[in-house]
Amino acid sequence: MLANLFPFTNWIKDYNTDSLRSDVIAGLTVALVLIPQSMAYAQLAGLPAYYGLYASFLTPLIAALFGSSSQLATGPVAVVSLMTAASLEPLATMGSEGYIAYAILLALMVGGFQFLLGVLRLGLVVNFLSHPVINGFTNAAAIIIATSQVSKLAGVYVDKASHHYETLIRVAQSAFNFTHLPTLGMGLLAFAIMVGCKRYFPKIPNVLAAVVITTCLSYATGFNHDMTVPVASISSSQAQHAITEFNSSLMQAESLAAKRTELSKKLSAAEASGEPLHALNIQHELNTIALQLDQVKAQSHTLRKSLREMLFAGVELSDGTLMFYPTNNVPEGMQADGRTWRLRVGNAPLNATGITIMGGGAVVGSIPSGLPSFATPTLDLSVVLHLIPFAIIISLLGFMEAISIAKAMAAKTGQRINPDQELIGQGLANMVGAFGKSYPVSGSFSRSAVNLQAGAVTGMSSVFTSIMVVLTLQFCTPLLYHLPQAVLAAIIMMAVFGLLNVSSFVHAWKVKWYDGAISVISFITTLVYAPHLDKGIMLGVALSLAMFLYKSMRPNVSFFSRTPEQTHTDTAISELEHCKDTSVIQFEGPLFFANASFLEDIVTEKITENASLKHIILSAGGINDIDCSGAEALELSIEKAHAHGITFSLCSANRTVLAVLQRAHLLEKIGTENIYATAEQALCNQHGFTATEDNATGSPLPEAYFHAS
Questions:
Q1: Three-state DSSP class for 335?
Q2: DSSP character for 15?
Q3: N or C: which end of the chain has fewer CB within 10 A?
C-alpha cells in the first residue's frame, strides 16, 4: 500500500553510495542541458525565458518521485510549449501578466486531468490518439516550431497573423530587407558549435557549449546595445508622428476592449432576466464594437510595422548624448557611430520620455534572482471553460510523449513501467509546478537519453537536476543576461529536427493505406490551420474513429475451400473454386450491432447466388464476442438457411461465444449435432468429405463444451 502511494520507496530502500555517485553525475549532466533548453522552450510558449527555469525546479523532482520510470527527465518540451502558446494566444497578449496567469492555470488543469486519469486507471484513453495522428501532428509541429524561430534567428520583428504561413510570409519580407547580420551570425555560430560537438566531441554537452561560448562572445563584443531615449532624440517627424498615432490607436483599442467587456456583462444579465429585445440591442452594439476593434487593430499593425522598419544612425552631440537620424538623412558634416539603430515596438504604448532603441542584437536580459513566490493559480471560470479542450489535448499529448520515452528506456534497462502511475507522476508534477509558476511540462526524449547515458540509476538523478536549477536561480541568473536570443532559437531548431520523420509516412502507407492517408491529412491540416493546432489533432482522431467504425461495420469475411492436401485456405488467396453445395464462411471480428446485418447479407448473398447450396458452415474462430444484435442477426441467418433447406453448422467458436448462443437459445436452433471444434470435423462428419485418419471420428462437441460459461 505504501509503495502505491509513494513509489520512490521501492528504490530508495536499497539506495547505496554507488547509486548516489551515478545519480549525482547524471543529474548534473541533465541540468546543464535543461537550463538553456527550458529558457528556449519558455519563449516558444510565449513566456519570458526565466519561466522555463520556474518550470524546471519542481517538476523533475515530483515526476521522478511519484512516477514509475527511474530515468524519465521531466520539464519543458517543444511540442507542449507550442500547444501552450496556441491555447493561450486567443486569450491574451504573449508575455503579458494575464497570459502568464493563464499559462500557470493551464498547467494546473493539465496536471489535474492527468492525475484523475491515473487514479481512475484510465491510461488507455490515450489510445484515442492513434500513431498515424501523432506522427502527422509531430512532423507538422516540428516544422511549425522550427519556422517560428526564423524571425529571432534573423533579428526581425513582425506581428503574428491569423495563420502561421501568413506570419512566415511577413517574416520573409522583413528578413529580406532588415536582417540583423550580427544576430544571424550568432545563431549560425550556435548551430556550428552544437553540430561540431555532436560529431567530434560527443561527451561535451553541445547545448551548454553553444550557450557558454556565444554568451561570452556577446559580452565581449557588446552584442547587445540598447538605449532608452526621449522621443525628442529621434530627429524624424515621420517617426514622431507615427509614434503618436500608434499610441493613440492602442489607447483606442484598450477603450473599445473595456467597453466590450462591460457590454458582455450586460448581455449576460439581459439574457438571464428574459429581455430578448434589450439583449438584441446590446448584441448589435457588441458587433459594432467588434468591427471597430478590428479596424483599430489593423491600423496598429500597420503603424507598428512601419516603426519597426525605420532604421536610424546615431550621431554623438557635444554633450555626449546621441541624436538619431534616418540612415539616409544624416546631416552633412556629422559622423554617425557606425551602428544601425531600430525602435523596439511591442504591444504596449511607447513612452515618449523613454523609448527603447536597439543598436545591437537581442539578448535574454535581466532574470529575477531567487525562486518564484508560491501562490495558488488564479481561477477564472470563463477561461477554464475555454481551456478545457486544450488541457485535455495537452494532457494526452504530453503523456504519450512521456510514456513512449519511458517504455523505450525500460526496454534497455529491464524496468517495469506502470502507465497509470506515470500519469499520476506527470499529473502531480504539473499541479505542484503550477503553484511554483510553472507552465505545462512533460517527459523530454533528449534529456531522458542524456540521463540514461550519464548512468542514472534511480529517480534521485532528477532530484539533483532540480537542485541544480534552484542553485542557478539563486546565484547564476546574472551570467545569463548576455545570452543571445538567436542562440535560444538555434537550440529549439536543433532539438526539433529530431522530430521530423518522413519515412514514417511511407511506412504507415505501406502497412495500411488509410493509416498513411490519416497521417498525411493530420500533417497538412496542422500546418494549414497553425497556430490552431487542435484542429489537426481533432480531425485526425475523427478520421481514425471513422475508419475504425467502418472496419467494424464491414469486417473481413473469408470463404474457404479444401485443397488436395486436405487443408482449408481462403479462396481469394488460393484462387480455388468454391464448392457447389457447401460454403465455409469465416467471420473475423466481434459480431455486434454495427456489423450484424453484414453477416446476414453475406448469408443471403450465398443462398441467392448458389441454387445448389446444401450446407453453410460458419467458422466462428474470429468472433470473440456477440451482443444482442449479433445474436438476432445470426438467428435470422439460421432461419433463412433452414427455410431454403440448407443445413447451418457452427465451428471453432470459443467458450464465451457459445455461452452467449446458449443464453440466446441459438444452440437449439443450430442443433448441438451441428456444432464442431473445427471446420475439418464439420466437413468430414456432416457433409460427407473424406476425412484424414486423424480426423476420422470428427464427432460434434461434447455437451459439456458448449454448456461451459
A1: coil
A2: -
A3: N
**Residues ≥6 apart with Cβ < 8 Å to 252:** 296
- Indicate the SS3 state at residue 363: strand
pLDDT digits (tens, 9 = 90+) for 478-491: 999 999 999 999 99
Nearest to 343 by CA among 239, 252, 267, 247: 239
pLDDT digits (tens, 9 = 90+) for 349-401: 998 888 999 999 999 988 899 999 899 998 888 889 889 999 999 998 888 88
Q: In what order do the strands lie in the sheet with 341-343?
A: 226-229, 355-358, 341-343, 311-316, 322-326
Instruction: Look at residue 273 and give its three-state secondary structure.
Output: coil
How far does CA 44 lie from the centroid of its chain? Answer: 14
CA distance 300 to 315: 30
Cα dihedral: 347, 377, 436, 60 (round 10): -100
For 475, what's the count of Cα atoms within 13 Å in the CB-facing half-sphere? 4
In degrees, rounded to 5, the angle at the alpha carbon of residue 612 between the alpha carbons of residues 610 and 618 is 70
* CA–CA dist 705, 709 (Å, integer): 9
pLDDT tens string 555-586: 888 886 655 545 555 554 445 555 677 888 88
**Portion of the chain with pLDDT greater than 70, in percent:** 93
Question: Taking a C-beta distance cutoff of 8 angstroms, is the pair 435, 374 a contact?
Answer: yes
Q: How far apart are CA 419 and CA 445, in angstroms?
A: 17
**From start to end of 551-657, where are the E strands?**
557-562, 568-570, 582-587, 615-619, 647-651
Residue given cell 500608434 in the structure block: 246
Task: Give the residues across from 648 on adjacent strands.
Answer: 616
